[in-house]
Amino acid sequence: MHHITLIPGDGIGPEVANAARKVIDATGVKVSWETVNAGEAVWKSTGSLVPDEVFQSLEQNRVALKGPITTPVGKGFRSINVMFRTKYDLYINMRPVMSIPGLETPFNGIDLVIFRENTEDLYSGIENIKEPGRAEATKVITEYASERIAESAFRYAAEHGRKKVTVVHKANIMKLTDGLFLETARKVSEAYPTIEFQDMIVDNMSMQLVTKPQNYDVIVTTNLYGDILSDLCAGLVGGLGVVPGANIGKDMAIFEAVHGSAPDIAGKGIANPTALILSGAMMLDYLGEKQAADMVRKAIQKTMEKRTVMTVDLGGKASTEAFTDAIISNL
Ligand code: ATP
């Protein structure tokens, strides 16, 4: 039995979290779900953005499936998502971006994985107003954090038969910060002689990705570029509704989609649950339930190949529930 924390979150969160839970339960893997919630909805009803029970549950179970969380502006935390990542040192943000056979998109055959550093860079929260009309933010890059994210990317590449790791940076301008990230990654690469090392400046990378995305395999980058490139890559494979993600540390992992709470479609029952269901498949992999994880991925593929039941963002008319049921029937 796996004990898992389920955080439904805000906006479309509860709709997609419910869908992901149903699909995972339908695989037959034994899961005991502990549902706790954080974010705007909880804050409105309890006055607390992250009730203690959320921390307790995470610390007990060490694995969570999480919907998107909205942080109300000016209510304590900079961002609840960033707080979880830094508090529990979830230093790897892993985002696989894959063309789903059956889904019509401008490109086919994309199969890349983004490793985004998750704890520092311009997300360090060091911002101040020096004088009226002048605001400053501090970009923090350490050798320690750069080394462990680069090591994670190269180790993943080696273990998964990947051929190339592309380090994305802007070291030509930020010579010290991005320079340190690049040089640290280069040193890490020396231990992996069979894997091609490539470095790419982030602006060029953006252009390459929207013209020849199939040329990329594993990408490792800093926090902000990783955030931006993830959304860009989502657009290449069918949109934010289909790209999963994981925040992984030494002894805890939180699985969540790349997308946000999508307030424009919240409560309408039309959100695409694929991204969170695929995040659930990554969670099953992490738990050692590889067969069930593959089953989920294949069921999604089969549903998309049939094209009869598709959510609105994918050009169909199906509700979240109908789409989820179709996936379950294809398991
Ligand atoms: P955040 O700042 O919380 O990351 P955001 O403002 O970047 O959020 P999202 O909430 O991710 O944006 O939504 C961006 C657009 O993508 C919206 O139009 C939204 O409706 C759409 N979208 C996001 N996720 C989904 C989904 N699962 N299904 C359908 N549409 C989605």
Summary, kept brief:
By secondary structure, this protein is of the alpha/beta class.
Task: Explain what this protein looks like in three dimensions.
There is one protein chain. With 331 residues, the protein is of the alpha/beta class. The protein has 2 domains: 1-105 and 238-331, Isopropylmalate Dehydrogenase; 125-237, 3-Layer(aba) Sandwich (Rossmann fold). It contains 11 helices and 12 strands. Strands 2-1-3-12-11-4-5-10-8-9 form a 10-stranded mixed beta sheet, sandwiched between helices. A two-stranded antiparallel sheet has the order 6-7. Strand 11 (246-248) and strand 12 (253-256) form a beta hairpin. Helix 1 (13-26) packs parallel to helix 11, helix 5 (143-159) runs parallel beside helix 6 (177-189) and helix 9 (274-286) runs antiparallel to helix 10. The longest helix has 17 residues, at 143-159. It is globular. The protein starts with a strand and ends with a helix. Adenosine-5'-triphosphate binds next to loops.
Notable features of this structure?
two-stranded antiparallel ribbon; Isopropylmalate Dehydrogenase; 331 residues; 40% helix; 12 strands; ten-stranded mixed beta sheet; binds adenosine-5'-triphosphate; Rossmann fold; alpha/beta
